[in-house]
Every structure is written in structure tokens, then in C-alpha cells.
Specification:
Elements: H1 5-17, H2 22-26, E1 45-48, E2 57-60, E3 94-97, E4 103-108, E5 112-118, E6 123-125, E7 136-139, E8 164-167, E9 180-183, E10 188-190, E11 195-201, E12 220-226, E13 229-234, E14 250-251, E15 256-259, E16 270-277, E17 280-282, H3 284-290
Antiparallel strand pairs: 1-2, 1-3, 3-6, 4-5, 4-7, 8-9, 9-16, 10-15, 11-12, 11-14, 12-13, 13-16, 16-17
The chain binds zinc ion.
Zinc ion binds at residues 1, 167, 177, 179, 181, 272.
């Protein structure tokens, strides 16, 4: 439940302290692209705000099915150049495919609608079909038509790939935790499955404060994914719960849910991501990896 910074520093300390500066300290920085840093690096697919590639960049190491449309949760252009801070959806003029795979850019979210596939190394003004009409992109196979079912379409990462894992099933202290804690990101966490919200629990007492040390007071949202799988999301603030999310609401994998928070039994902003199979807790990160989900934070 807690994302105890001092507790989780062991092994992950360097990463936890430098979220956002990932590549700089990784030791493999020369070979590894750091997505979301506003630089279009080798291994990344990038959008530019301007067709001449002189505007701000938005850089990705993985496919994204929904960019979001409002700050602070949308994918945006980074850096100081023109366009900086704007949501990228339907606002990219240029691109650079610095991956070694074809990348398909779609008119609609969810890898749907008309699309254009650009070759490895290609760059320049976005083709007319998606110029300022870009809503999702897929790196590698499966691109091309938009009608290909996504191999992992039922599942998605609940957090950006730049997030940091600060706890797994057991804390480094050995105490059972039973979930994955993701920190080092802002904005909304996303549903990791197609499913139906079957429970929203709000603890009014601690709904909108950081209650360090308070036990059993955590806001929870649960999604039933079918097949005996349920996914729980905790520590968001009640004030951030969109009115569109209620018990019975259907959600899609990759759909924005609630802003990540620091509510209840939590010592720092993070998502507590809990997964159950037939009522038993399993490791959600491993589960999503087993489903082939792309864009999960690195371990
Ligand atoms: Zn937790």
C-alpha cells in the first residue's frame, strides 16, 4: 500500500530518485533511449509540433493507443520549442521514426480509422491522412490497416513506461504488500483491462489529504475484467474522481481513470495496482507482461 521511499530505495533507489532522469544514470545511457524527454533519440518514434521538425518533440519507445486530450494527463510536446506543453492528439505536424520498425499512425484512438505506415528512418511532414489528425500509433507489426486486432488490446499498462516500480508483492522489509506500486509519474493512471467498474470505495475521513501513517483509509477503484480477473487502483483523491466513473461503468484497456494521488495509507504519490485472479492476489506487473502488454515500466 505504501510507497515508502526509504523502504524501497534498496536496489531501486537510484531509479526512484531520478525518475525523469532515467537514462542519465542508467549506465547504458548511450544505447537506451529515454522516452518523454523531449529529444528524439535512436530507438524512438517521435512527433514534432511543426512539419519542419523545428518545434517541440514528443518521443516514444512504445506504442500508445490513446494520447488523452487534456492536461495534465495527455501526452504532450516536451522541451522549449514551439508547441511545448500542448497535447499531441490531432496537433502533430511532423514525425521522425528512429526505431528500426515500421510505425503506423492512426486517425483514431485505439489503432483505428485511416492510417499511414512510415518506414524506419523516415522523417518530415506527417502525411496528409494524419496531418494534425493523429490519435494513436503502433510501433512494429500489427500496423497497416487499423483493422488488425491489437494482440494485447484487452490489456494495457496502467501507467506510462517512464514510471518507476517502487514495490512488488513483498516490500524489501519482507512484509507482504500484495500489489505493485508505480511512482514517478503524474496525471491519470489507466485501466489495464477492458472491463466494468464493480466497486468504488471512498474513505471520506481521509478523502483529500495525505494521511501519512493512517491505516485502512485508502480510496479504491476496482474493475472486473472478466475471466476471474479483477484489478484495483488505490491512493487517488476523491476530488479527482471523474463523475463519468461509477459502479457499472464500462472501461477500456488504456482508458484514463483518475489522477495518481497520495491519499490514505501512502507516503508519496503513487498508484497501488492490485490484481486478483479468482479472489487471490497475483502480481499485476507479471500478469500484464504475460499478456504481452507493451509500454510497461522497466523493472
Ligand atoms: Zn501499495
Amino acid at each position: 500500500m505504501r510507497s515508502m521511499k526509504h523502504r524501497t530505495l534498496t536496489g531501486l533507489g537510484v531509479l526512484a530518485l531520478t525518475a525523469g532522469g532515467f537514462a542519465a544514470v542508467s549506465g547504458h545511457s548511450a544505447a537506451q533511449a529515454a522516452d518523454r524527454n523531449g529529444k528524439c533519440e535512436k530507438g524512438e518514434f517521435c512527433y514534432n509540433f511543426n512539419s519542419d521538425l523545428k518545434g517541440a518533440w514528443s518521443d516514444f519507445t512504445s506504442s500508445v493507443g490513446d494520447y488523452g486530450t487534456t492536461q495534465p494527463s495527455c501526452y504532450d510536446f516536451k522541451g522549449k520549442a514551439k508547441g511545448h506543453g500542448k497535447c499531441i492528439k490531432n496537433d502533430a505536424g511532423g514525425f521522425w521514426n528512429k526505431t528500426n520498425k515500421p510505425v503506423t499512425i492512426y486517425f483514431n484512438s485505439g489503432y483505428a480509422g485511416r492510417s499511414v505506415t512510415v518506414k524506419p528512418g523516415a522523417k518530415g511532414k506527417l502525411p496528409a491522412a494524419v496531418y494534425n489528425n493523429n490519435a494513436s500509433h503502433r510501433i512494429g507489426k500489427g500496423g497497416g490497416g487499423g483493422h488488425n486486432p491489437a494482440p494485447s488490446g484487452k490489456w494495457a499498462s496502467p501507467v506510462p513506461s517512464s514510471a518507476v516500480i517502487t514495490a512488488r508483492a513483498y516490500y524489501s522489509s519482507g512484509r507482504y504488500h500484495g500489489a505493485v506500486d508505480y511512482s514517478g509519474f503524474n496525471g491519470k493512471f489507466r485501466s489495464a483491462c477492458n472491463g466494468t467498474i464493480d466497486s468504488i470505495a471512498i474513505n471520506r475521513t481521509y478523502a483529500n489529504r495525505n494521511a501519512y501513517g493512517v491505516t485502512g483509509s485508502t480510496n479504491y477503484l476496482w474493475v472486473n475484467c472478466g475471466g476471474g480477473i479483477r484489478m484495483g487502483y488505490a491512493h487517488w483523491y476523491a476530488k479527482d474522481l471523474p463523475s463519468s466513473l461509477k459502479r457499472g461503468t464500462k472501461v477500456k484497456a488504456g482508458q484514463n481513470l483518475v489522477n495518481v494521488g497520495n491519499q490514505g495509507n501512502s507516503s508519496g504519490q503513487h498508484l497501488h495496482f492490485q490484481v486478483e485472479r479468482s479472489g487471490k492476489q497475483i502480481d499485476g506487473h507479471d500478469f500484464l507482461q504475460s499478456k504481452g502488454v507493451k509500454g510497461l515500466p522497466r523493472e
